[in-house]
C-alpha cells in the first residue's frame, strides 16, 4: 500500500518522450471509435525500444483496443474508424504502402487464452516460417530450437517435438504460442493478459520470460494484475475511459503517482 501523502491533482501527466533512436512506437493524437462511439481519445504516447511497457486501467478503458490498433487487428471490423497516427520505427502503420501481413509479422500478438494450432509442437513453431519463406529443413530446425529456447520451453519439449501441442499444460501452451510468434522474428510483442488464464507457477515463468525477452525485442503488456505490471514492466501507462491519464517509469507510477486517479487505481480504491 502507498503511504498517504499529497498528490498533485492539477497537472495533466505529459507523455514520456524518447529520442528517435530509442523510440519504437510513436502514437500521436490517436482516436478510435466503434460505430461512432469513441473508445480511445487523443492518445499520445511513445513506447521505448527493448523495454517492457504495461498498459493498465479499469475494465473497458481501451487497453485491448489500443493493443489491437498497433497491429491493425481492427482492419476487419467495418464499424471501426480512427484518426491520428501510430508509427512503428518511424513509419506510419496506416500509410497506403504498408504491407499489413508484414506489419503483423513485425508486431506479434499473444492473447489471454493460449491458442496453439491443432498440430505438433514442431509444426506450431514452423507455421509462420513456412508461410514466410522457403527454408532448408536444417535452417528451419535451427530457428525452431532458437524460438523454443527463447520462450523457455526447449528443455521441456526437445525430446518429443512431434507430440500434439494440445497435450501440453496451459502454461507450456502459452510459451509455445510465444515461441511461434518469436519464430518469425518480430520487432514488437504485444501481450494481452498473457498469464491471466494460468496458475501462479506458470504465471511466474511467463513473467520471467517477458523480462528476458526485452533484450531481443520491444514488449507491450496489458494486465489487470498490478503486481505483475510492477514486477515486469519498465514503463506503465494508466488509461481511463479511453484517455491516457498518466505515463512514466513503472517505479514512479507505482510509488509516486502524479495524480490521485492513478493512486486510487493502483491501490485498489477504484475497480
Ligand atoms: N468489437 C467491439 N465493438 C464495439 N465496442 C467494443 C468492441 N471492443 C471493445 N469495445 C468497447 O470499447 C471500449 C474499450 O474496450 P476494451 O476491450 O479495449 O477495454 P479493456 O480496457 O481492454 O477492457 P478489459 O480490461 O475488460 O479487457 C469498451 O467500452 C468496449 O465495450
Which properties best describe this structure?
271 residues; alpha/beta; six-stranded mixed sheet; 10 helices; 34% helix; disordered N terminus; binds adenosine-5'-triphosphate
Small ligands present = adenosine-5'-triphosphate
Quickly count the helices.
Answer: 10
CATH third-tier fold name: Rossmann fold
Q: What is the CATH superfamily label? A: P-loop containing nucleotide triphosphate hydrolases
User: What is the number of strand segments?
Assistant: 10
Shape summary = globular
Sheet with the most strands, sense and barrel status: 6 strands, mixed
Q: What's the alpha carbon Rg, rounded to whole Å?
A: 19 Å
User: Reading side by side through the largest sheet, how are the strands ordered?
Assistant: 6-7-8-3-9-10
- The helix content is 25-40%
Order of helices and strands: EEEHEEHEHHHHEHEHEEHH
The chain-level mean pLDDT equals: 92
Q: In terms of structural class, how would the helical and strand content be classed?
A: alpha/beta
What is the first-to-last residue Cα distance? 16 Å
Low-confidence stretches: 1-15
**How many separate domains?**
1
Amino acid at each position: 500500500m502507498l503511504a498517504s501523502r499529497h498528490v498533485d491533482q492539477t497537472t495533466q501527466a505529459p507523455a514520456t518522450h524518447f529520442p528517435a533512436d530509442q523510440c519504437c512506437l510513436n502514437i500521436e493524437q490517436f482516436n478510435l471509435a466503434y460505430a461512432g462511439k469513441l473508445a480511445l481519445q487523443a492518445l499520445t504516447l511513445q513506447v521505448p525500444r527493448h523495454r517492457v511497457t504495461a498498459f493498465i486501467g479499469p475494465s473497458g478503458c481501451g487497453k485491448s483496443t489500443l493493443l489491437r490498433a498497433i497491429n491493425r487487428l481492427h482492419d476487419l471490423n467495418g464499424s471501426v474508424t480512427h484518426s491520428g497516427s501510430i508509427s512503428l520505427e518511424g513509419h506510419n502503420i496506416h500509410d497506403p504502402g504498408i504491407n499489413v501481413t508484414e506489419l503483423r509479422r513485425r508486431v506479434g500478438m499473444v492473447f489471454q487464452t493460449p491458442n496453439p494450432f491443432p498440430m505438433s509442437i514442431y509444426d506450431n513453431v514452423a507455421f509462420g516460417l513456412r508461410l514466410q519463406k522457403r527454408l532448408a529443413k536444417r535452417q528451419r530446425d535451427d530457428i525452431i530450437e532458437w524460438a523454443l529456447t527463447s520462450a523457455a520451453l526447449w528443455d521441456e519439449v526437445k525430446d518429443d517435438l512431434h507430440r500434439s501441442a494440445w497435450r501440453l499444460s496451459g502454461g507450456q501452451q502459452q510459451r509455445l504460442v510465444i515461441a511461434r510468434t518469436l519464430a518469425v522474428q518480430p520487432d514488437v510483442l504485444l501481450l494481452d493478459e498473457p498469464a491471466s488464464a494460468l496458475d501462479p507457477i506458470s504465471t511466474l515463468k511467463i513473467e520471467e520470460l517477458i523480462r528476458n525477452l526485452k533484450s531481443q525485442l520491444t514488449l507491450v503488456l496489458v494486465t489487470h494484475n498490478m503486481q505483475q505490471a510492477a514486477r515486469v514492466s519498465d514503463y506503465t501507462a494508466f488509461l481511463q475511459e479511453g484517455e491516457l491519464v498518466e505515463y512514466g517509469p513503472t517505479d514512479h507510477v507505482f510509488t509516486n503517482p502524479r495524480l490521485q486517479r492513478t493512486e486510487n487505481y493502483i491501490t485498489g480504491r477504484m475497480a
